[in-house]
Design goal:
Blueprint: H1 2-37, E1 40-46, E2 55-56, E3 74-75, E4 84-85, E5 91-97, E6 102-107, E7 121-122, E8 135-139, E9 142-143, E10 161-166, E11 169-182, E12 186-192, E13 197-203, E14 210-218
């Protein structure tokens, strides 16, 4: 009887030990999962009222050319139905997206020309492309007016490529996600904080209350 009791106790100990190992394994797996997921959190940025992307599709807002102080020299581009401006003297770099024939310069983040009503606009919390693990955030208008440079972003699909030229260097980005959210003066940017990222923001086409966020990872 004593031998049987000892065997039962040993068996219970083995089962208990096995359960402990399983529990430890589950804790390790779950911790690894959460460590991987913790980077997929969001940044939240707020727009200035005059910099918030808006859907400009009112024919009364459409102009053949920008006002005199905003005049730029168009680059010939037969493949693009819309004039593309890339050579303004105050530009410090440019964004190119070949799929939609977009070539657009951007001004310094502190410049008065860094204004969504004149150009694509770098958001205040942005980090330039040469900052590791930073987020280069650009907003632009969608619509029919002359300054609606992001009107074709809706044609992009995950995997499409974009380039940023900055400080004589070319940076390559790949679109990894895009999503819509309510347009309320803020943008919630879901991205991997282990990556160097570019985020493009514009209003969702044919809506007045939504915006689309495009997340690109630098390669």
């Amino acid at each position: 009887m004593k031998e049987e009791s000892k065997e039962r106790n040993k068996e219970k100990q083995r089962v208990y030990f096995a359960l402990c190992l399983i529990l430890i394994g589950l804790l390790i797996l779950s911790s690894n999962y959460f460590l991987a997921r913790k980077h997929e959190v969001f940044e939240r940025i707020a727009f200035e009222i005059d910099n918030e992307p808006q859907n400009i599709e009112d024919p009364n807002n459409t102009e053949e050319t920008p006002p005199e102080e905003q005049t730029e020299t168009p680059q010939d581009n037969k493949d693009n139905n819309k004039d593309t401006y890339v050579d303004q003297s105050y530009y410090i770099g440019r964004l190119e997206i070949p799929k939609i024939n977009l070539k657009r310069g951007f001004a310094d983040i502190k410049s008065k020309q860094n204004n969504i009503n004149k150009n694509i606009a770098i958001m205040p919390t942005s980090k330039y492309p040469d900052i590791k693990k930073g987020n280069f955030i650009i907003a632009g208008h969608t619509g029919n007016a002359w300054n609606c440079f992001f009107s074709d972003l809706n044609k992009l699909k995950v995997g499409d490529i974009a380039y940023v030229y900055y400080k004589d260097k070319k940076y390559t980005y790949r679109l990894v996600s895009k999503y819509d959210q309510k347009k309320d003066g803020t943008a919630r940017i879901f991205r991997d904080f282990n990556k160097t990222v570019m985020t493009l923001i514009t209003c969702k086409k044919h809506t007045n209350d939504k915006q689309t966020i495009f997340i690109f990872n630098q390669e």
